[in-house]
């Protein structure tokens, strides 16, 4: 069953990225970034739609050239999800996408150049009612900070971020969020902790260049888990050298584990041992593959024997406990039906989908009643 999270979130200013609220008491949003060639409009739109289908709140698109900016305009026409344009060096690209319907500009004021160019970008953002993300990375610190600190450090990341914050303060622009990312978990965590005490704006969390699907997931879960458990963070991006769809799935899994967002099925499953009365691993693989499209929050327990099975099943919306001669399925904490090994995956899938449909109908009736 769903329980309230004990996490007490840091108080932050709220901004709006398209229709998505970021900061304040808004849910922590999950985002990813396309890895297609932006000028390939069809491929980029297709990937954005796949990300949206698995629950992405926000999608970032790299815009490295004016040609890519024009392609971004075509992409914007074809998708409704909140879009962030990732821009470096050429401020004119930022001005162009601001007029083409972008929902947020991701810039590093330090590499935009002169004060008048930063001002032009800020004026465009203000005119179009869009926020800015200041993105600081350990791998691209300013040369003077590299010289001062000798190497990337949490203090160097924060000094860089505050330098850019001062740019926007001087221009009386407060609708921005900040990230201070590093591939080293401790460096990123310490930088975010330091920055969280010094600004009121929302924080975009991420462990940059975290690695492949497995190693990057672990590194991101450790780093972001520490920060989120302390109440730090308003939007997250999991950086994986993998299909961006996996970034969204991992992001929601991290938030679900801390009870900060409920989306999709939260599986409770034993690692299995010789006591199991059915193949737990095979069953879980099949269930996860079949139910990947389910976004309704639900706890499902799959336990191979009677040692922990009944206890876990009673706490779940639907629970399966291995038994001899037949396994037992619980629903809403009570024994519901017995099932043999040959039918258990089909039976569980049907029960879960029936329960999802019932929940959706109840929610629709509640909304209709006002």
Automatic annotation (TrEMBL):
<dbReference type="GO" id="GO:0141197">
    <property type="term" value="F:4-hydroxy-3-methylbut-2-enyl-diphosphate synthase activity (flavodoxin)"/>
</dbReference>
<comment type="function">
    <text>Converts 2C-methyl-D-erythritol 2,4-cyclodiphosphate (ME-2,4cPP) into 1-hydroxy-2-methyl-2-(E)-butenyl 4-diphosphate.</text>
</comment>
<comment type="pathway">
    <text>Isoprenoid biosynthesis; isopentenyl diphosphate biosynthesis via DXP pathway; isopentenyl diphosphate from 1-deoxy-D-xylulose 5-phosphate: step 5/6.</text>
</comment>
<dbReference type="Pfam" id="PF04551">
    <property type="entry name" value="GcpE"/>
</dbReference>
<keyword id="KW-0560">Oxidoreductase</keyword>
<dbReference type="GO" id="GO:0016114">
    <property type="term" value="P:terpenoid biosynthetic process"/>
</dbReference>
<dbReference type="InterPro" id="IPR004588">
    <property type="entry name" value="IspG_bac-typ"/>
</dbReference>
<feature type="binding site">
    <location>
        <position position="270"/>
    </location>
    <ligand>
        <name>[4Fe-4S] cluster</name>
    </ligand>
</feature>
<dbReference type="GO" id="GO:0051539">
    <property type="term" value="F:4 iron, 4 sulfur cluster binding"/>
</dbReference>
<dbReference type="GO" id="GO:0019288">
    <property type="term" value="P:isopentenyl diphosphate biosynthetic process, methylerythritol 4-phosphate pathway"/>
</dbReference>
<comment type="similarity">
    <text>Belongs to the IspG family.</text>
</comment>
<keyword id="KW-0479">Metal-binding</keyword>
<feature type="binding site">
    <location>
        <position position="305"/>
    </location>
    <ligand>
        <name>[4Fe-4S] cluster</name>
    </ligand>
</feature>
<feature type="binding site">
    <location>
        <position position="273"/>
    </location>
    <ligand>
        <name>[4Fe-4S] cluster</name>
    </ligand>
</feature>
<dbReference type="InterPro" id="IPR045854">
    <property type="entry name" value="NO2/SO3_Rdtase_4Fe4S_sf"/>
</dbReference>
<keyword id="KW-0414">Isoprene biosynthesis</keyword>
<dbReference type="InterPro" id="IPR016425">
    <property type="entry name" value="IspG_bac"/>
</dbReference>
<keyword id="KW-0004">4Fe-4S</keyword>
<keyword id="KW-0408">Iron</keyword>
<dbReference type="GO" id="GO:0005506">
    <property type="term" value="F:iron ion binding"/>
</dbReference>
<dbReference type="InterPro" id="IPR058579">
    <property type="entry name" value="IspG_C"/>
</dbReference>
<dbReference type="GO" id="GO:0046429">
    <property type="term" value="F:4-hydroxy-3-methylbut-2-en-1-yl diphosphate synthase activity (ferredoxin)"/>
</dbReference>
<dbReference type="InterPro" id="IPR011005">
    <property type="entry name" value="Dihydropteroate_synth-like_sf"/>
</dbReference>
<dbReference type="InterPro" id="IPR058578">
    <property type="entry name" value="IspG_TIM"/>
</dbReference>
<feature type="domain" description="IspG TIM-barrel">
    <location>
        <begin position="12"/>
        <end position="251"/>
    </location>
</feature>
<keyword id="KW-0411">Iron-sulfur</keyword>
<feature type="binding site">
    <location>
        <position position="312"/>
    </location>
    <ligand>
        <name>[4Fe-4S] cluster</name>
    </ligand>
</feature>
<dbReference type="Pfam" id="PF26540">
    <property type="entry name" value="GcpE_C"/>
</dbReference>
<feature type="domain" description="IspG C-terminal">
    <location>
        <begin position="266"/>
        <end position="353"/>
    </location>
</feature>
<protein>
    <recommendedName>
        <fullName>4-hydroxy-3-methylbut-2-en-1-yl diphosphate synthase (flavodoxin)</fullName>
        <ecNumber>1.17.7.3</ecNumber>
    </recommendedName>
</protein>
């Amino acid at each position: 069953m769903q329980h309230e999270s004990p996490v007490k979130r840091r108080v932050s200013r709220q901004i709006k990225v398209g229709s998505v609220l970021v900061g304040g008491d808004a849910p922590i949003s999950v985002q990813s970034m396309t890895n297609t060639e932006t000028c390939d409009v069809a491929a980029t739109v297709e990937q954005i739609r796949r990300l949206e289908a698995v629950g992405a709140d926000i999608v970032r698109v790299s815009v490295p050239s004016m040609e890519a900016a024009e392609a971004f305009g075509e992409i914007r026409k074809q998708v409704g999800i909140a879009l962030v344009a990732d821009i470096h060096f050429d401020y004119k690209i930022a001005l162009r996408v601001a007029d083409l319907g972008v929902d947020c500009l991701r810039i590093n004021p330090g590499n935009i150049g002169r004060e008048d160019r930063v001002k032009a970008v800020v004026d465009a953002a203000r005119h179009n009612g869009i926020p800015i993300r200041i993105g600081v990375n350990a791998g691209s610190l300013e040369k003077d900070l590299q010289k001062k600190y000798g190497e990337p450090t949490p203090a160097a990341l924060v000094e860089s971020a505050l330098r850019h914050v001062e740019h926007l303060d001087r221009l009386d622009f407060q609708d921005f969020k900040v990230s201070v990312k590093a591939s080293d978990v401790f460096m990123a965590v310490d930088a975010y902790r330091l920055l969280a005490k010094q600004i009121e704006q929302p924080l975009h969390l991420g462990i940059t260049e975290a690695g492949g699907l497995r190693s990057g997931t672990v590194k991101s879960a450790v780093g972001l888990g520490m920060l989120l458990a302390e109440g730090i963070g308003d939007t997250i991006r999991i950086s994986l050298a993998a299909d961006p769809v996996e970034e969204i799935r991992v992001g929601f899994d991290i938030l679900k584990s801390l009870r900060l967002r409920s989306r999709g099925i939260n599986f409770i499953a034993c690692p299995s041992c010789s006591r199991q009365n059915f193949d737990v691993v095979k069953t879980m693989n099949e269930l996860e593959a079949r139910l990947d499209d389910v976004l309704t929050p639900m706890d499902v327990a799959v336990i191979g024997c009677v040692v922990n099975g009944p206890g876990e099943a009673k706490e779940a919306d639907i629970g399966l406990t291995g038994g001899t001669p037949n396994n037992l399925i619980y629903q809403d904490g009570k024994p519901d039906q017995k099932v043999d090994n040959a039918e258990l995956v089909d039976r569980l899938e049907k029960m879960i989908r029936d329960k999802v449909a019932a929940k959706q109908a109840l929610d629709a009736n509640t909304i209709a009643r006002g």
